[in-house]
């Protein structure tokens, strides 16, 4: 298994400003979008190496089940006939801001939800509070150790279980505030990557930013260095700040890199809804880490950010997830493009403009 997310699947109801009619039964949730990011880089020959969990309530729409099945991932459907599927109400305000609230009680995914195959994953995506992050990392580690000791476990699975997985943590937005900083630092000691978006990063560190002014890269560098320098054993950790239209900023203790967004001025008209772009980035980021297993840690994370940037471009071109079709030769097309086309094009653009050539 290459990737598993412990993020949730949610069915969204989305309301817009008049006269646009609302959308109902829209696939959503951090777990869905992270899975999309990983799945983009794992076509059918390897799509079963992408793992996730979906709680399927009594109201689960058949068309959504069919669409999930069409991705051919390792999706564990947990039947909950006694309750509805987790749902959320979303509304776009006149400012363009999207408000969100759960419409019913959510069902969390824990380490105990995972199958034996999912416990062998090389990477895990977590979307949770700092305390829960630590609990999940420890819980997954303990379950992996227990499975490795089980006499029924075969040698191939044991080999996968004894290797340390990469944990990529996405902190909950409402807990990214100065009062939670120490807890976030504690959690960062247990994971390989912490990835807030820009607003969350600034809120956590008490930084004021003007969204109408270009990013101050020197300030980003300084604050990431301070953050990583506060972590015990922080040499292995990285901070990846997802910055929307300004791309992402990848920081290790001794180096950093800014990558622009895939959609810039000439293709900005394709951006319809940024929802899920950050989760999709991190799912693909995890696959990028797997793709470069022998590279230096910093190199792996920088290469992974290329995957994340390209994946996010597909997620934000529509409300919900992109459309999957196939070319005449059987190649997967997402919104009528292959993932390789975009990855190659983005790599060429970086090489030509900034010298950050994509590593082959």
Describe the structure.
This protein has 10 helices and 15 strands. The protein has 360 residues and is of the alpha/beta class. Strands 5-4-1-8-9-10-11-12-13 form a 9-stranded mixed sheet, sandwiched between helices. It has a 4-stranded mixed sheet with strand order 3-2-6-7. It has a two-stranded antiparallel ribbon with strand order 14-15. Strand 4, helix 2 (62-70) and strand 5 (74-80) form a beta-alpha-beta unit.
Question: What can be said about this structure in brief?
Answer:
With 360 residues, the chain is of the alpha/beta class. 35% of the residues lie in helices and 21% in strands.
Order of the strands making up the biggest sheet: 5-4-1-8-9-10-11-12-13
Q: Total number of helical segments?
A: 10
Strand portion, in percent? 15-25%
State mean pLDDT (0 to 100 scale).
93
Largest sheet: 9 strands, mixed
Which residues sit in consecutive blocks of at least 5 with pLDDT less than 50?
356-360
Shape: globular
> Whole-Å distance between the termini?
23 Å
The computed structural class is: alpha/beta
Radius of gyration: 20 Å
Annotation keywords:
single chain, alpha/beta, 360 residues, 4-stranded mixed beta sheet, globular, 35% helix, disordered C terminus, 15 strands, 9-stranded mixed beta sheet
Give the helices and strands, then pairings.
Layout: E1 3-5, E2 10-15, E3 23-28, H1 30-40, E4 50-57, H2 62-70, E5 74-80, E6 87-92, E7 98-102, E8 123-128, H3 130-149, H4 155-162, E9 166-171, H5 181-188, E10 193-194, H6 198-205, H7 217-229, E11 238-242, E12 248-251, E13 256-259, H8 277-291, H9 297-315, E14 324-326, E15 332-334, H10 339-353
Parallel strand pairs: 1-4, 1-8, 2-6, 4-5, 8-9, 9-10, 10-11
Antiparallel strand pairs: 2-3, 6-7, 11-12, 12-13, 14-15
């Amino acid at each position: 298994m290459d990737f598993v997310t412990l993020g949730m699947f949610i069915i969204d109801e989305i309301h817009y400003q008049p006269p646009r009619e609302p959308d109902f039964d829209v696939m959503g949730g951090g777990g869905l979008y992270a899975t999309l990011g990983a799945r983009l880089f794992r076509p059918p020959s390897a799509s079963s190496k992408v793992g996730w969990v979906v709680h399927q309530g009594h109201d689960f729409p058949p068309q959504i089940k069919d669409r999930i099945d069409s991705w051919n991932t390792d999706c564990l459907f947990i039947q909950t006939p006694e309750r509805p599927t987790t749902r959320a109400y979303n509304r776009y305000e006149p400012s363009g801001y999207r408000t969100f609230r759960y419409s019913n009680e959510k069902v969390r995914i824990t380490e105990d939800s995972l199958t034996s195959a999912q416990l062998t994953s090389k990477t895990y995506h977590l979307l949770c509070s700092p305390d829960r992050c630590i609990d999940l990392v420890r819980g997954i580690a303990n379950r992996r150790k227990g499975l490795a000791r089980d006499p029924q476990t075969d040698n191939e699975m044991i080999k996968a279980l004894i290797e340390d997985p990469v944990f990529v943590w996405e902190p909950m937005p409402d807990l990214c505030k100065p009062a939670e900083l120490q807890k976030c630092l504690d959690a960062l000691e247990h994971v390989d990557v912490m990835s807030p978006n820009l607003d969350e990063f600034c809120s956590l560190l008490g930084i004021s930013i003007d969204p109408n002014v270009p990013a101050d890269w020197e300030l980003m560098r300084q604050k990431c260095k301070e953050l990583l320098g506060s972590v015990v054993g922080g040499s292995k950790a990285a901070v990846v700040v997802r910055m929307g239209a300004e791309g992402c900023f990848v920081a290790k203790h001794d180096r950093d890199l800014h990558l622009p967004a895939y959609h810039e001025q000439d293709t900005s008209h394709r951006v319809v809804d940024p929802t899920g772009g950050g989760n999709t980035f991190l799912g693909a980021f995890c696959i990028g880490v797997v793709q470069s297993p022998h590279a230096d840690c910093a190199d792996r994370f920088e290469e992974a950010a290329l995957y994340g940037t390209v994946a996010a471009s597909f997620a934000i071109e529509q409300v919900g997830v992109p459309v999957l079709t196939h070319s005449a030769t059987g190649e997967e097309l997402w919104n009528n493009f292959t993932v390789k086309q975009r990855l190659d094009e983005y790599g060429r653009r970086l090489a030509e403009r900034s010298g950050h050539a994509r590593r082959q």
